[in-house]
Amino acid sequence: MTVPVRAAVLREVNAPFVLEEVDLDAPRQGELRVRVHASGICHTDLSYRAGQGRFAFPAVLGHEGAGVVESVGEGVTGFEPGDAVVLSYYSCRACGTCARGQPAYCEQGYAGNFSGARPDGTYPMRWRGEPIRSGFFHQSSFATHVLAHQHNAVKVAKDAPLELLAPLGCGFQTGAGAVLESFRLQPGQRLAVFGVGAVGLAAVMAARVAGAASIFAVDLDARRLELARELGATDTFLADEPELTRTVLKKTRGGVDFALECVGSPKVLRQAFDVTRPLGTCGLLGLPSADAQVSIPMMALLFGKRLVGMLEGDADPKRFVPRLVALHAQGSFPLEKLSRSYAFEAINDAVHDMESRTVIKPVLRMHTGAAR
């Protein structure tokens, strides 16, 4: 039996979001109906809004939801009505990749996250009597209520500050996971972060937690560089500074141990690669255009320099989100310095502020209060 809920419907590429009443399915096998308290807005949402996802509209986007379980479908274990949850990406937990501990690269990952549908191709919501793409990351969290899956829900304390924790499901997890899970940065090592938005600043905070000797932050926005210093960066550079690569190489006597590209730009990726030392690793986190290409010197690769792509920072949300929640509780991961909250009705204002770089992480409030 369906229930009426409100959702921000995107009717066509680059159109404004419009709050509409839609009908939400009852939970199926393994699914949870979640009353969404808050949802972050991620650059991936904006990329899909701009048509980069190449799927048909209308659609309901959003993939950084947090809320309270209202009901569960058959076969659900570990969750019950009243549980507070943070929602992340979907993985099947059964394929060979998941079994090897890499759920971000699940063999059903595209179908379960990026297609806008359930893995079986069906849609949880109907708008004006017709199915609408509404399974984005198995949540489509720009709605008052969603259907998530037990595999992409992470239980948190019932009094958890869901408005703050919502963005842990993707952006903050991606940046912090790259440092703590993929790189496994050790005390005394050096990191360079190119692009200090939500993902890059999460990487900066994680590097400070890990005990990095030097944290280099690069961005076009001087205000964001000031915040990066507050959060742990030891050195900051405007991205258009002349001789940037040469300066970093000189200060590090040959390069950093790790570099992160958080923009999705071939030019920036090449910069990040060039400041990475031999035997160091450069990671790509930014979402590039589908046809983006980069030229890399093969000799650098031959001498042990590595270039890797990462989804979700290689993090498993079932383990990693609780770790980030604990770091926040300890004061080591100050999410509140990165977020600004907006009423659900102001979603287009939030998108505008994000696109104009006046806010780092907009968070929509669908329902107010803690989980209780």
TrEMBL record:
Domain Enoyl reductase (ER): 8-364
Swiss-Prot/TrEMBL keywords: Metal-binding, NAD, Oxidoreductase, Zinc
Sample GO molecular function, one term: S-(hydroxymethyl)glutathione dehydrogenase [NAD(P)+] activity
UniProt GO BP: formaldehyde catabolic process
Record flagged with keyword Metal-binding: yes
InterPro entries linked to this entry: ADH-like_C, ADH-like_N, ADH_Zn_CS, ER, GroES-like_sf, NAD(P)-bd_dom_sf
CDD domains xref list: benzyl_alcohol_DH (cd08278)
Cofactor: Zn(2+)
Keyword Isomerase carried by entry: no
Lineage top rank: taxon: Bacteria
Gene Ontology cellular-component terms listed: cytosol
Family: Belongs to the zinc-containing alcohol dehydrogenase family.
Protein name: Aryl-alcohol dehydrogenase
Organism: Myxococcus fulvus
